[in-house]
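Model: Ready when you are.
Researcher: Fold this.
Model:
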Amino acid sequence: MSSCALPPPLPRRSNSGHDPRVLGTIALPGVAVALWQRFTDAAWARPGLDAAAPERLPRLRQTLRPQDAAAAIRGACDAAALADCDHRRALIDHVADLTQHAARPMGALLVTLRVEVTDGQSCPKWHLDAVRARLLCTLRGAGTQFGPASGPAQVDRIQQMPTGTAALFRGRNWGAEPTGILHRSPPAIPGQTRLLVVVDPVDEAASC
């Protein structure tokens, strides 16, 4: 009598905590997403950041060393004419922290840092990113949605990240153990502008 072995279940576990070292748990067996709950208060930079006009919000896409993130986002704030004030300084510090904490678990010497401003649903489909791992953090507006895959582009038990929480998701290129967690941008809310930080580790081979 022959038997057919079933494939192992896809990793679907999520870890969360207030210590940034929780992001390192993404490498543990079975973990598909690690959430750093840095801010229990979603209004960490309000009213200044939420009150800023969308054209004054920084926009950035740059491959850099993690330690250079503060200078890069400062330049983006200058380019957007975002006034020097407490919420601007908090924004620069937070993006710099996010970049360095995203790079550390991957051992990445370079990262691609994106700061995006959008008023629509930029990624409406449930998906995996074509990277080893990706950090997402919404600093203004609704947070990213995620959940366990129930099909190629479907999830059940939809969860939504709070504003200010950072999540490190395994991507399509993680390696031998694929992931069972998909994510997408939240549905657009009329009149609401999102400010999203995205950090991808750059593999040395890809950067050459």
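Researcher: Now this one.
Model:
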Amino acid sequence: MFTGIIETLAEVVSTRKEGSNLVITIQTPLAAELKIDQSVSHNGVCLTVTNIQGDTYETVAVDETLQKTNLGQLTPTQFVNLERAMVFNGRIDGHLVQGHVDSVGECLSCQEQDGSWLYRFRYPAEFAALIVEKGSICLNGISLTVFNVTNDEFSVAIIPYTYEFTNISSIKTGSLVNLEFDILGKYVARQMAVRN
């Protein structure tokens, strides 16, 4: 379980295919604090640390993950948002995030607004019941508040801190992002479907 509050940006050193899996090597000072078999959110995707060497570590994305996220598009020198699993003895500064991406979304626009940035994204309409005005979404691992929600689009406003310390600054028109819809909305939608 995560909160959507990014701890650090980390550089992709390499990617390699092993069968249908993708092995991703990440470089970060945070590697020294990790342990093998630990869960870490990478652009919002929960992956397991499989190997640690100095300031780098490896993780594996299986085919199912590659089909439903943007991780298959990672290339060396790109940066990913990292967050270690939450500790249940502190504040939840974002919202409850599982690290289980529901879909990818497409950036429709990005506008600089004199100190902040306004992004507009398209998402698959099949998830419309899971997103509400002023609700939470996890976008590339970042906990954000949505507004101007339609059945297949939403907007988010980005403050300077988030723009500087996450990879949102690399998102341009046409970029694909990982989306995880609010778990509470999923449970409510499921209960409503079961009752009907």
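Researcher: Key takeaway?
Model: Residues 148 and 154 are 6 Å apart (CA to CA).
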